[in-house]
Structure formats: structure tokens, C-alpha cells
């Protein structure tokens, strides 16, 4: 009996079984290629037009407020260097003048501080050498000499009181009624007085205590004067005068 040939089995194998592994390899390669493909590019964002820069507007610089400036200071020790008027004629009959390191003012005198001012502070020490209960020292500001108009603060040491008035063409108008204050030293004791005419405010401090403040816009500039009122024997002495412009 003859033996079958060795390549008979290969001849009888189905062609489909031989090609199946090749197809699988092709499919696997396609899948691998699909998985390794780069992702689609991200969408490019739309470019936005830049917002217009607002135009810069310049803010005007505020007007600086002038610093307070001392325009007169006098301790009355040396009349030759003083800026207030000296006594005229006989000293005993004069209404004002330098006396023994102080400045003397009697009724009927209104001693002018040189210059004209809108905003001013006047500070000094004052004592009543002689006089009556109504004798007072007064401080005038924004005085219009031609019109006889001004503001005035009256300090009455014997009563320990102070008041403020406005004079309109020689006629007085009360702004702050006379009122007694414990801060005012009575009799012949010395009081430190400060009167301020700044803006529309007229105010006064005595011995460091504010004793009056009132607003009035009638007058805005004028002279500063120091005076005394009362009986003929009234004798007011002032010292350490300082006048400050604001």
C-alpha cells in the first residue's frame, strides 16, 4: 500500500484559514494608527478689540492756604523800637503811649495797628490799673474808618464779662450779649486776651478759654484798633502784643 505524500495536507487546507492572521494584523494596525493619531487642534479664541483707554482729565491743584504770619510783636520794653504811636505831649494828659514796659490806653483812644487786614488774630495781656465797674478794654477789627463801621469785642474786667458788637455807620448792633465768665480774672489782675477775626467768624479766648464765637459776613477787611471805655480815670495797660495774619 502506497504512503500519502507529505504536502497533501497543505494542499487541502482552506485558503481562508491561511489569510485570517493577516487580516487580523491589518485590523490591529489600523486600530493602533487610529489611537495614536494626534487630537484635533483646540479652537483659536477670538481676539477681542482692546477697550479704549479713558482720557485723563487734569484736576486743578487746590489753592494753598497761607500759613499764619506774625505781622507785629511788641513787649513795649523799648519805645524806640515800638510800632505803636508814642505818647504825644504831656504823658499825664496823653490818651496812649509807652509807660514803664507796658502800653497805656485811656478812654477816647483807639490805637491803630499798622496795616489793613481781612483775617487777623490779636493777642495780648491786659490789666486795669484804675477805673470803675464799666471800664473795659476793646478790640476792633475790620474797621472802615470812612464809614465808621467795624466789629468790636469788649472785655470788662471788674465784671468778669465779655460782649461782641457790630458798629454800622456809628450805630451799634449787639452780636453777643455781655456775659460773665469764671475764666476772666477780676479787679486789677492780668488777663490774656485773644480776639480772632477769621472768615465770617468773630471769636475771643480769655486765659485760654473760648468765651464767645459768632458768625457775621457784613465786613471782610479793615483796620485793627485797641481802645478803652469807661470813666475818665480808666487806665488800661497792655503787654506782650502779638498780631497774626491768617
Helices, strands, pairings?
Blueprint: H1 8-12, H2 15-35, E1 69-74, E2 96-99, E3 102-105, E4 110-117, E5 120-130, E6 136-144, E7 149-156, E8 161-168, E9 171-180, E10 191-198, E11 201-206, E12 209-215, E13 222-229, E14 235-245
Antiparallel strand pairs: 1-14, 2-3, 3-14, 4-13, 5-10, 5-14, 6-7, 6-13, 7-8, 8-9, 10-11, 11-12
What does this structure look like?
The chain has a single domain (69-245), classed as Exo-inulinase, domain 1 (Jelly Rolls, Sandwich). By secondary structure, the chain is mostly beta strands. Strands 1, 2, 3, 5, 10, 11, 12 and 14 form an eight-stranded antiparallel β-sheet that branches. The protein has a six-stranded antiparallel β-sheet with strand order 4-13-6-7-8-9, with no helix packed on it. It has helices spanning 8-12, 15-35, and strands at 69-74, 96-99, 102-105, 110-117, 120-130, 136-144, 149-156, 161-168, 171-180, 191-198, 201-206, 209-215, 222-229, 235-245.
- Helicity range of the residues? 10-25%
Please, what is the CATH homologous superfamily? Answer: Exo-inulinase, domain 1
Q: How do the helices and strands follow one another from N- to C-terminus?
A: HHEEEEEEEEEEEEEE
Number of helices: 2
Structural class: mainly beta
Apparent shape: elongated
- Overall pLDDT, averaged? 84
Question: What is the name of the CATH topology?
Answer: Jelly Rolls
Count of domains: 1
Any idea of the CATH class?
Mainly Beta
Comma- or semicolon-separated keywords:
Jelly Rolls; 14 strands; mainly beta; disordered N terminus
Q: What's a concise summary of this model?
A:
With 246 residues, the chain is mostly beta strands. It is built from two helices and 14 strands.
Amino acid at each position: 500500500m502506497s504512503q500519502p505524500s507529505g504536502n497533501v495536507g497543505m494542499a487541502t487546507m482552506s485558503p481562508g484559514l491561511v489569510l485570517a492572521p493577516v487580516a487580523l494584523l491589518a485590523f490591529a494596525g489600523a486600530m493602533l494608527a487610529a489611537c495614536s493619531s494626534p487630537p484635533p487642534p483646540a479652537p483659536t479664541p477670538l481676539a477681542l478689540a482692546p477697550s479704549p483707554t479713558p482720557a485723563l482729565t487734569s484736576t486743578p491743584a487746590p489753592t494753598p492756604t497761607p500759613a499764619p504770619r506774625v505781622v507785629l510783636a511788641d513787649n513795649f520794653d523799648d519805645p524806640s523800637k515800638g510800632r505803636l504811636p508814642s505818647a504825644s505831649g504831656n504823658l499825664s494828659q496823653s490818651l496812649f503811649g509807652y509807660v514803664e514796659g507796658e502800653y497805656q490806653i485811656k478812654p477816647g483812644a483807639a490805637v491803630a495797628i499798622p496795616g489793613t487786614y481781612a483775617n487777623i488774630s490779636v493777642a495780648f495781656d491786659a490789666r486795669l490799673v484804675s477805673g470803675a465797674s464799666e471800664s473795659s478794654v476793646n478790640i476792633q477789627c475790620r474797621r472802615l474808618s470812612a464809614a465808621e463801621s467795624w466789629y468790636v469785642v469788649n472785655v470788662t474786667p471788674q465784671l468778669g464779662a465779655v460782649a461782641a458788637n457790630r458798629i454800622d455807620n456809628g450805630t451799634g448792633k449787639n452780636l453777643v450779649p455781655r456775659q460773665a465768665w469764671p475764666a476772666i480774672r477780676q479787679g486789677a489782675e492780668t488777663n490774656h486776651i485773644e480776639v480772632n477775626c477769621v472768615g465770617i467768624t468773630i471769636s475771643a479766648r480769655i486765659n485760654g478759654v473760648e468765651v464767645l464765637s459768632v458768625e457775621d459776613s457784613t465786613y471782610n477787611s479793615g483796620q485793627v484798633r485797641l481802645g478803652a471805655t469807661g470813666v475818665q480815670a480808666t487806665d488800661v495797660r497792655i503787654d506782650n502784643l502779638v498780631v497774626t495774619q491768617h
